[in-house]
Specification:
Length: about 650
């Protein structure tokens, strides 16, 4: 990873738009400048850096001894939504000439500002590789959309947290082009050891202010709800006035709504209030010392939830602008900052506390990692970025035969008396059904099932049905999707064991639900009673050639046969115990019993749930399916659901 695939220096262009992004980009710029044998650095300044009302912050870039190659005046004043859009448009008009002149190999873009989106869009359309800093994070405003849009344009990504890295991977970005480095500003934060912090505090807040006895306030408009954010700012100022502590308040950024927020400051007399110091800009090195030794920071700036955690300074995060950010325990959220009293209570709770220092966003070694990552970029690789989408089932070609085909499944129902196979369409229509008497032996059953499936598949061709698979079994539905399991054997509910010494099951085990409650199990018990002349009671008759089955057992129970009723009660209890196990494992909201035996079991199952299940799951609904062929439709759905959705 030490050298890119070119035998020349890597020409890196850094575009900075405002005071906030410069604090993250400056450490990288210093690192690039310190290795002239590997890099050439071009600096483009645009956005609010060049506006007097926002402190003309381009000067701090000059004070850091960086040569500014280009200054672009891109802000259309107005501080409303339209002005933001026009500013993006103006930047898009001006940037192409700059990029044509500089011809950078890599454009470094930070964060989620509208100016940064214009830079990334221009670079992408001009075939310049983009390195995006702080992608994958979540805040809670329009910034999220802008940040993720830049991610889609960027070729390489430097993220600050493990969660952000996972978000980028989830967004189908190439893992090999993602660097988990930490936040570059933490390289400076964690090494900040300015012992003369008192002179900085006195410079900005007055000679009579002590450490941990003042507040830093920084609040920006929320562009998706400007009216509410202005009201919240007014309440914040009222709370700060009532709290009666010296407060350093910074002017908001240039987003839509900032002009109205400044009007609120002037309406409240903040600029002339003895407890307030209102400023447009504080150099980052000094700002670090101010928040490190503050009694509290309040507002909705990302700085509060990200950088300030490095010092353990208490933070009050107001509203939703940063609600999705990862935070340390030093942050107290006031999501609905709708009353002065609520904000005032938060100030009383937080002011003067000291929390453990947090390193969620970095360990102080981000810049060396980023420089190493830059050196590894091979400019000979194809420029077109690739997305790592999850695998998707291949689409069938759109010839006329495929268009006219009906996507279908073969459904198999292994009944006690009969075996059934059906062709079921995607719409849940039983196109054709085949029924055969159930043979006596296992080998004969398997042979007959295969024969019936082959016959049905051949018939499907004539019916223009495309068979996607064969389905057998019960099902569990979670979040509107069937659970298939790692080897497609999920929901073998009939083989839940409910007794260690129960009857033999066809699976080779003992005491399965199926060994008690299936049609074949009831047929077995009915034959035992019949062989002992204990099945038939008054009102029943059977022909000599008639096969004894589960329905005879049910009929006998209805006519007063106590032994038949006991067998059904035992079978229903076994089924009920299996359902209780499922309730304790899956906690479903609905249990659907299907088949000819369902109506005879439903009340017994409900009784078992009332007697055996935990109280928290006893309210589950247990119903009988009203579908005509529920077993066949359920078996078919297992195939149709899986083969026509994305593979997870």
């Amino acid at each position: 990873m030490e050298k890119n695939g070119n035998n020349r220096k890597l020409r890196v262009c850094v575009a900075t738009c405002n005071r906030a992004d410069y604090s993250k980009l400056a450490p990288i710029m210093f690192g690039i400048k310190a290795e002239p044998q590997f890099f050439e650095l071009d600096v483009v300044v645009l956005g609010s850096h060049l506006i007097d009302d926002y402190g003309n912050t381009y000067r701090m870039i000059e004070q850091d001894d960086f040569d500014i190659n280009t200054r672009l005046h891109t802000i259309v004043r107005g501080e409303d939504e339209a002005a933001m859009v026009e500013s993006v448009g103006l930047a898009l008009v001006k940037l192409p000439d700059v990029l044509n002149r500089l011809k950078p190999d890599i454009m470094i873009v930070h964060g989620d500002r509208f100016d940064a989106l214009a830079v990334a869009t221009s670079a992408a359309l001009m075939n310049i590789r983009i390195l995006h800093i702080e992608g994958g994070e979540v805040s809670g405003t329009i910034d999220d959309s802008i940040r993720h849009a830049i991610t889609k344009l960027a070729h390489y990504h430097v993220c600050c947290t493990r969660n952000a890295e996972q978000h980028l991977i989830s967004m189908c970005e190439d893992h090999d082009r993602i660097l988990l480095a930490g936040c570059p500003s933490y390289d400076k934060l964690l090494s900040a050891k300015n012992k003369d912090y008192m002179s900085i505090i006195r410079m900005w807040l007055g000679d009579d202010v002590k450490p941990k006895d003042y507040i830093v306030a920084l609040q920006h408009p929320v562009t998706t709800d400007i009216k509410h954010s202005i009201k919240m700012f007014e309440l914040t100022l009222d709370a700060l006035i009532s709290f009666n502590k010296r407060t350093l308040i910074l002017f908001p950024n240039i987003d839509a709504g900032s002009k109205e927020m400044v009007r609120v400051m002037r309406k409240k007399g903040v600029e002339h209030h003895p407890n307030f110091r209102a400023v447009k800009h504080v150099p980052f090195d000094q700002f670090i010392q101010l928040v490190a030794h503050a009694g509290c920071m309040i507002g909705n700036s990302s700085c509060g939830v990200r950088e300030v955690g490095a010092f353990g300074t208490p933070v009050i995060n107001l509203g939703t602008r940063q609600i999705g950010r990862e935070t340390g325990e030093n942050v107290l959220h006031v999501r609905d900052a709708d009353t002065q009293d609520k904000i005032l209570q938060a100030l009383h709770l937080q002011f003067g506390k000291q929390y453990p220092c947090s390193k969620i966003y970095g360990d102080g070694n981000a810049v060396p990692r980023i420089l190493k990552f830059l050196k590894s970029i091979d400019l000979q690789e194809p420029l077109q970025k690739k997305f790592c989408f999850p695998p998707v089932k291949e689409n069938i070609s759109k010839d006329i035969d495929h268009i006219l085909e009906t996507q279908s499944a073969l459904a198999v129902d292994l009944g006690g008396t009969n075996l059934r196979v059906a062709i079921v369409s995607m719409k849940g229509e039983v196109v054709k059904k085949y029924t055969q008497s159930n043979p006596k032996t296992y080998e004969e059953r398997i042979k007959l099932i295969l024969q019936m499936c082959v016959e049905a598949a051949a018939e499907a061709v004539k019916l223009n049905c495309r068979i996607l698979g064969v389905g057998i079994g019960g099902g569990i539905i979670h979040q509107h999707e069937l659970i298939h399991g790692s080897s497609f054997c999920a929901a073998e509910l009939g083989h839940l064991v409910v007794s260690l010494d129960g009857p033999d099951c066809s699976c080779g085990n003992h005491g399965c639900i199926e060994a008690y409650a299936s049609g074949m199990a009831l047929q077995r018990e009915a034959k035992k009673l019949h062989d002992e002349d204990l099945l038939l009671v008054e009102g029943m008759s059977m022909k000599k050639e008639e096969t004894v089955g589960a329905l005879h057992l049910i009929q006998a129970a209805k006519l007063g046969n106590t032994k038949a009723a006991s067998i059904l009660r035992t079978a229903g209890t076994a089924l009920g115990l299996g359902v209780v196990n499922i309730l304790h494992t899956m906690n479903p909201s609905l249990v659907i019993l299907s088949g000819v035996l369902a109506s005879h079991y439903v009340n017994i199952v409900k009784d078992v749930i009332r007697q055996q299940a935990l109280f928290s799951v006893q309210t589950v609904d247990v119903v009988v399916s009203d579908l005509v062929d529920p077993a066949l439709l359920g078996a078919a759905s297992m195939v149709l659901d899986y083969t026509t959705r994305r593979v997870q």
